[in-house]
Structures are given as C-alpha cells and as structure tokens.
Amino acid sequence: MFLLLLNSPSISVDITSINPVDFIIMSLCENLTENFNFHLVSTEKSISDELDKCQQNALMCLQCFTNSEKHWDNEKQATEKQLQTIKEEVIEKKKAIEGQERKVQELTKLLHGLQEEVDHAHLEEKEFKTLLQTLEKSLEKKKTGIEAKEKSSQEEAVECQKALSYFQQRLALKIKRSRDDWLTFIFTSIDPNDVERKFSFALKVNEGNLFEVPGCDPPIPGLSELVEDLNRHNNLLAFVYVIRQRFKALI
CB count, 10 Å around CB of 19? Predict the structure, then answer.
C-alpha cells in the first residue's frame, strides 16, 4: 500500500485507493499549493519590505514636513515681525508727515499774516506818502505865510520902535513889562507943578485876544469906552495918545 503525504502533516492518503487521474490532480494541486505558498511568502516579504520603505519614506516626509512647518513658522514669525516693524515705521512716518503738514499749515498761515501786514504796510506807506506830500505843501504854504508875517512883523517892529521912541521923547513915556505879561505905560511931564509925577495904566490881551486895562492911576473917566474903541479899530497909538490927554485933563 502506497501512501501520499501532502504538505499538511495531518493529512495522509492511500494511493492504492485513488484513481490515477485523481492522483495526478492531487499532485498538481500539491505543487500549485507549494508554489502558491512560496510566492505568497515572497510576496508578503516584498510587501513588508515595500511597507517598510513606505513607512521610512512617510517618516522622512513627515520629518521634512515638520522641518518645513517649523521653517515656515519661523518665516511667518519673521515676516510678522518685519510687518510689525514696517507698520511702526509707517506710523512714525505718518506722524512725521502730519507734523510736517501742521508746520506747513502754520507757516502758510504765518505767510498769509505777513503778506497781509506787508500789504497793510504798503497801503500805510502810500497813505503816508500822500499825507507827507500834503504836509509838505501845507508847510510850504505856512513857510511862505510865516516869511510874509516875519517880514510884516519886522516892519511893524520898526514902526513900533519909531513910535516908542516918539512916545519916550515927545510924550515922556516909559513902558515896563509887569506880571502876567502886562504892559505898564508910565507918563511924566504932565503936571507942570510936578514934572516927575507919574501917570500910568496897565494894558494886556485876554484869552479872547482883546485888549483890557486892569489898572489906571489916577482913574480917568470914559476908560471903558476908550478900550472898546481900541478893540474895534486896533489903533494903539491913538489910544495911548488919548489916555495921555485924559491924564492931562485931570490937572
């Protein structure tokens, strides 16, 4: 009796009881099984090796990704820091620009104010020149009038000096300046019994530019009328002469 032992240790077959065809089939099956097991083991090993490689590659990729992520985190932080620095610089520059703008506005305002002052000064200069020209013309007229008055005053002074000399010589008259710019007229040689006897009167010009006689010694009648006539005609020589005649009439 022949026995056929299969790969499985628990299986034994008596070949005398098996048909030759079945035996061939069984042999083929056994060979196929052995080949399949061999290829299966090889495949499992190949797959295991591939899995190991894939795992290693995955670990390498994960490590690269982790390194890359750290790198990008560092880059991100550096970029954020740089952006923050740029923002701060932008803020500072913006503040500086705003400060410059304020200065420009202040300078512009100051420039407008200075321009207004210059325009006002030019206007004042123009007005001052006009006023100066007017004053020059007025001064020229006044100068001409003063020169004319000086000439007239000089002529009047000459006449007054002549009249004074006449009074002093012919009428025995002396004129003295007394208090408050009064003029005191003193006559002598009126009383034939006492030629040294003094007859006098005071004369002044008041605020209204009129003649007044604040004192007369001795008093004479009609003095107020004589003063009115003096203010009306402004003839001082005649007034002095009439006063002397009135003094003489008292003797």
Answer: 10
